[in-house]
Amino acid sequence: MAKLKIGSIDDDKPVSLTVKLPAMIYRDLTAYAEILKREGQQSTADPTTLVAPMLARFMATDRAFRKLRRGIQQKVQQALPQNPSETA
Q: Does residue 66 fall inside a structural domain?
């Protein structure tokens, strides 16, 4: 059996977000959720639970995003005081 990129879904404190999906994407998302349920990797076939892990997976595998994000984080770290006594 093929290994899906999204496995079990971790329970995390959600933040509400409203999105509109094309019908074709929603049908595919629903089918994906049903396959995960059938394989026992998810207790429900609710496709809305897949959106966050799929986005997270997409961003985690986007090399350009990771590189740019790392650069932003380094700039923020450089802007912070290095020694807490410097802010006194």
A: yes
CA distance 49 to 88: 46
Per mean pLDDT, which of 4-8, 38-42, 80-84 is the most reliable?
38-42
Q: What is the DSSP string of 39-61?
A: TTS-S---THHHHHHHHHHHHHT
In this prediction, residues 33-52 reach a mean pLDDT of 87
Residue 10 lies in a domain: no
CA 6 to chain centre: 10
Look at the chain and report how many structural domains it folds into. 1
**Structural domain includes residue 16:** no
